[in-house]
Structure formats: C-alpha cells, structure tokens
Amino acid sequence: MPKFTEKSLVEDYILEKLIEKGWRFVPASELERESFSEPLLLNNLVRAIKRLNADKGIGDEELKHVLNELKLKGSGNEGLKQILNYLKFGVPIKFEKERVVKYVRLFDFDDMDNNEFIVSRQVVYHGRDDIRTDIMLYVNGIPLAEIECKNPASFSENWFDAYGQIKDYEKTVPELYKYVQIGIAAEQTAMYFPIVPWQEEVKANQWKEAEKDPLDSTIEMLSKDTLLDIIRNFMFFRVEMGNATKVIARYMQYRAARKIVNRVSANLKGEDEKNKGLIWHWQGSGKTLTMIFAAHKLYHLKSLENPSIFFIVDRIELEEQLYTEFNSLDIVKPEIIGSIDELRKVLKHDEGKGRRGIMITLIHKFRVEELSELQKELEELSKQKETILTRKNVVAFIDEGHRSQYGTMAGQMKSILKNAFFFSLTGTPISKKGKDTYLEFSYPPEEKYLDRYFITDSIHDGFTVKLVYQPRLEKEVHLKKDMLETFLEVEFEELPDDIRDSVEEGVKKRLNAINMFLENPKRIELVARDIAEHFKENVDGKYKAMVVTASRKACAYYKLYLDKWLPKKYSEVVMTYNIKRDAEIIQDTSRESRARYGEKEIEEIRKEVIEKFKEEETPKILIVTDMLLTGFDAPILQTMYLDKPLKEHRLLQAIARTNRPYKGIKEAGVILDYIGILNEFKRAFEIYSEEEIKGALSGMESLREDFNTLLDGLLALFSDIPKDSYDRQTMLKAIEVLTTDEESGKRFLEDYRELRKIFELLGPNEIKVERFSDYKWI
C-alpha cells in the first residue's frame, strides 16, 4: 500500500479497492434519495424487498408496513436492537390475506449477487446539524458501514480523531445511526468498532488478514460476503449489569469460527471427511465468544437442519461463566443440563433422537455406570431409526479438551455422541506429550491446529498485556529444592479426575508434605505481611490483586493475617466450604463471611464478592486456591501473589488471569512468586515447544531492559541538546525537534507513554534511581 500524504488520497484508495471487490460507486448527487433527512435509499430498498420476497406474495400494503417498521423504530438502544434483528432475520409482517406472520428479508445471505452493494463519498445528512460522511456503504439501500478518513501525514490528527468524528455524528444524526452498524476510522492504519450511540467510548480494533497491512485488511473485512456475515453472525447486543452495548468479532474470532463452520459444512456436503478440530487461542483473546459465534452460525446453518449443540466443560464455574456470557447476548439462549437425570432426558428426547438446541453440561455427568444402560437402549433403537447416536447434525464444543478427554467419562460421551462433530478450544498450547489430544481433535502431522493465535500475537494486538514475574522472600519461604523437584516430576495433575483417587499413595504422601509446608501459619504470616506491604506501595488505588494459595486451609490463614496488615474490607476469600468436615479455621472464615453479607448462602455471597471485585472499590484482593484460576475475567486484576505450586497448562491459565488490558494504563500483569516455581520457568513449561510458549512470561530484568531501551531512544531524539539544563531555552529547542519532524513527534508520544507505564510497574527497582536524572529530563 502506498504512503499517503493527503486525506483525499486515503479516500481514493479505499474506494478503488472496494470497487475492485464488486461495490458499485455512485456519486452522492446521484443517489436515489428522498431527502437529506432520510438515511435509507428507499427506491433501492423497495426493489430489493420485492426481489428477495417474491415467493411470499408481498404487496403494497405489506411493503408499506416493512418501511414503517424500519422508519418508526426509535434511535435508543431498544430501537437499535430491533433494527439489528431485522437486518439479521427479516421484518415480521402480518399478511392480511393469509392471516399469517412472515419474515420479510432485507438481505440475501446465501447469494451475494442477489443484493445491491453501493459505495458513495461525501454524503450529506440532515439532523440536529448537517454532517458530511467521507465514505458510506449501502446494501440494498440500507447504510451499514461508514468510513471517516484522516491525513496520515498530519501530526495533529490521526485515526482517533476520525473515530471521535463518527461518535459525534451518532448524536448529531441519530436516525442515520439506527442503521449503520460498523464505524471505521482510517488513515495509514484503520480501526473498526460497533456503532453504539449511547456509549461515550467503545473499543476499536484492527482487522488483520495474512500478509496485508491494517488498511487493506479492513477493506477485506468489507468484502460483500464478510460484511453481511459479520452483521448476521458476529455482532450482537450485550447487556451486563443493566448496561447495554454491542459486541463485534475480533479478527481471530471470526477466522476460527468460520473455519469451524466451513469444516461442518464441507463434511455435510460430502466434500471433506474431516469432522473435528483443535483451536488454540491464548488466554484473554476471547475464546468463549469464539465458541458462541461459531455455535450461533451453526444453529442457523440450513444444512444442519435444527441441530443439537453441546458445550462440555469440566468446571462448575466455567459452566456458570459460559451460561452468563450467553445470557448477556441477544442470541438463542442455552439450557444448562443440571443433573444426570436431566442428561438422560435430553438424550432420550423425541424417541431417542435427542433434544435440539444449545446445551451446556459438565463432562462429569457422562458416568459409565449411569449411562451404559441408556446407551444399550439407544443402540437397539438405532437399528430401526435415527437416534442421537447416528445423527450427523450434532456438534460438541469441548472447553480445554486436554484436561478432561482421556478418562472413562470422556469415553462414554464419545460413545453416545459418536457421530457428532467435535471441536476443542484451548487457551494454552498442547504439550509435546499431548499426542492423544492431537489424535482426539485434529489430524497430525499435517494439521495439529485448525486455528491458533499465539501469545505474542495477542500482546501485539493489544487484546492482552505481557506477564512479568518477580521472586519474593526466596530464602525465607520458597519450597525447598527436594520439594520443588518432587512437584516438577510427578504427573498427578495430569491424571483424569475419575482415576485420581486410585493414584499410588507414595505420590500423595510427597505432595502432602508440600501442602503441610505451605499451610504453616508462621510462613503464611510472613508472606501475608510482605503481600500487604507490596500491595499498599504498588497496587492499591490503581489495580486489584489475587492471592493464590495451596489449599482452603491456607486461604483461611491468609485472610486471618492479611486482616492484621490491611483493612478487613480489602480482602475476601472465594472458595467452597464443607461445614461438616472443614477445619475450625475454615469454618471461622465461613461464619465471618456470612455475618458480613447478611447470612446469605455461600453461593450467593461468592457471586456478590466477584461482582463487587469487578465493579466496586472493595474488595481489592481475592484469596483463592482453585476457584477463578480458569475463565475469570477482570481487567482491573493486575497482580497475582502466587503461593501455590502450579505448572504447565494450570500455571499458564492461572497467571493469565492478570493479562487483560485495563483503561490503557496497564503495561503488564505482575506475578509475585513465593514458591520458586517461576525460577524454574523452563522446566515448568518444558512440555511446550519454544515457538508456542514464546512471550508467555518474563522476569523483571526484561522490564529493566525495556526501560533502558526506551529511555535511550528518547534521549537520542534530542542528541544535540544538553541534558543538564531545564531552562526555557532548552525546552524550546526540544519542542522544535518534535514539531519540525512529525515522525519524531509521533515516536516521542508513543514511547514516552510506554516509558511512564514501565516506570510505574518497576516499583522500588534500583534502575529508577540509577536513571532518574535522565527520566526526569525526558
């Protein structure tokens, strides 16, 4: 792509590329418009409705109802929600002659040639004031996407100004933005975002295609089929805690979900025998939504003919998180299969064909002793007719398949869903020894992953931040060398849940010795004091933290001792309780928690604590042992105090809780290691290939290096200016450097922002003292 020097050249380039992709350019003066106040190209829309709904016998009266339904919808969030549904599924209209409601289609999602794609530039609209949009894209007369352009050579404007312009336009001409779904801010780069007029800020992302720059990639996103596919299957209203917004797919979510749907479609058409796939997308990049996007598209796929779609997880909290995510979206609602009896009913439904729809369940419900008789019944039925065993329109999504797919329950599941499509999505790479996972879900050696999204990709794209670690109290509290060796050598955590109980006693004894060391109250008191001091100096007031402990008893002790050094309201324990069997210290923790929360049930308290951690000032620290180490998403969480031996995928999943960006100020997630496991980083992750684990975690030394590199680079911009002076003359010379060379100005702003974040993150590091005079001058 050429380097642009004027805004008009950006417009010209985008238009040229869109025309190459089949969009028809119509000058603004030649658009078939009723008035500048009417956003729709009504003549184009009427022709499209008649063409797409000829089989329905649509008449003038029905046509009038369709147009009124669109035009009379309000421009608030409820009106926009209805408009988006009309775009996806058509407008429900009662046909009086037949006295029946039919959905009148606005687009043909199967045959792109049956739609009219128009692009125009400098289109004027009347609202509270007049606006002039740079580029507007219409499909069948409906404006769906707007592009605002800025001069890439300008020091004073960039894509963010174009973004702000669209946000202003949303308020100025609300009637137009009932229909426009995607905004694009373009210069040398391009950022896309959903149109949400009532929100002051929405997240803008880059679209990426292989071997294309951001602007060309965004133009690919605006290809006819991709744009309509996004509108129908990859954009939804979301309501969380009473706040409405819109969700639009990130590029890697779209890529992976499309691959899943294409695999199913190709198999059903007889074009390919493959019926499974393994997808690895790094923690925090949106794996759950990827599954939901794919499931939504599959649910509406004509060739699947009313499918059964199962989400199978191995943790109750993951089941709850998935259900909550589904329910927040304006999408087909799933059903949770809450018991083994309910699972039997689902499988036996409709004379053994199985219930249709989207269902979520735990792998633990597929117990051989509970379902073997049902399987025999279904096998007998299958000799006479179609059953859940033989149906091909069954899809199973397995979350973190490497954790739970090798025991008897997994075997039972696959015996019943024997003809299903299986897709496993994981947030960590598959280990070198995980050959069984590849065999279960992929086609090695030619295809290990159907799609993958590396750690470094996610950090570069800004969907996650890097992770840095620092050992703490090494001599005082770290595991002794023999204990650490024991933990690194045993494979206990890799055993399937249903055979762990029978593991050799020797292994259990060695692990119990480690637990006793980690539950020692004196040791915990020492660590808790260090945590409190670190939290007050480096975290409090900016971010929040999590303490990960070795056991539930350790959780209780940590709460006891943290309350000595910090206000009680700062921390809360999130764990399970067993009142009859728990130690007294754990029962005390439970009683105190219930007293603080008005004697509610523990489950209610846990949900309230998590919600307050995400949304309110306190609690500021969560104390956990197993819960929230997978799937928990709280961008404000920045620091993890790790006092539990973890390795391999469990360690990756746990530390990744801190990797979500937060308000543009979070440079990294910080892991403070009280175990010593991260000093053995290579051994803890030796089961992964170097390529797949690259960028996962780095020590504080890497931050020092980054700090030095950035500071030296910034100083070099002012090489001709003495650094021992802070007077007005020196400042004017520095300003001259930044304003005469725009590239230097841009680089200074970007690098200085980064430098300040790292300076804060380094905490009480000696490099800040060593380089303070240089930092102060910059």
- The main sheet orders its strands as 13-14-12-15-16-11-17
- Bin the helical content: 40-55%
Determine the structural class based on helices, strands and strand pairing: alpha/beta
Distance between the termini: 35 Å
Radius of gyration: 29 Å
Contiguous low-pLDDT stretches (5 residues minimum) are: 494-500
Please give the largest β-sheet: 7 strands, parallel
Give me the count of strands: 24
In the residues, how many domains can be counted? Answer: 4
The chain-level mean pLDDT equals 90
Number of helices: 31
The global form is globular
Strand content: 15-25%
Q: What does it look like?
A:
The chain folds into 4 domains: 7-244, no CATH class; 249-456, 3-Layer(aba) Sandwich (Rossmann fold); 466-696, Rossmann fold, CATH 3.40.50; 703-777, no CATH class. Helices cover 44% and strands 17% of the residues. It is built from 31 helices and 24 strands. The strands form 5 sheets. Strands 13-14-12-15-16-11-17 form a 7-stranded parallel beta sheet. The model is unreliable at 494-500 (pLDDT under 50).
What's the SSE blueprint?
Layout: H1 7-20, E1 24-25, H2 42-52, H3 60-71, H4 77-89, E2 91-95, E3 100-104, E4 117-126, E5 130-139, E6 142-149, H5 159-172, E7 182-186, E8 190-194, H6 214-221, H7 224-233, E9 235-240, E10 243-248, H8 251-268, E11 276-281, H9 287-299, E12 308-313, H10 316-328, E13 335-336, H11 340-352, E14 357-362, H12 368-382, E15 394-399, H13 401-404, H14 408-416, E16 421-426, H15 435-441, E17 451-453, H16 455-461, E18 466-471, H17 474-477, H18 481-489, H19 505-518, H20 521-539, E19 544-549, H21 552-565, E20 571-573, H22 584-596, H23 602-615, E21 621-624, E22 637-643, H24 648-655, E23 668-673, H25 681-684, H26 690-693, E24 698-699, H27 700-717, H28 728-740, H29 742-761, H30 766-770, H31 772-777
Parallel strand pairs: 1-4, 6-7, 11-16, 11-17, 12-14, 12-15, 13-14, 15-16, 18-23, 18-24, 19-21, 19-22, 20-21, 22-23
Antiparallel strand pairs: 2-3, 4-5, 5-6, 7-8, 9-10
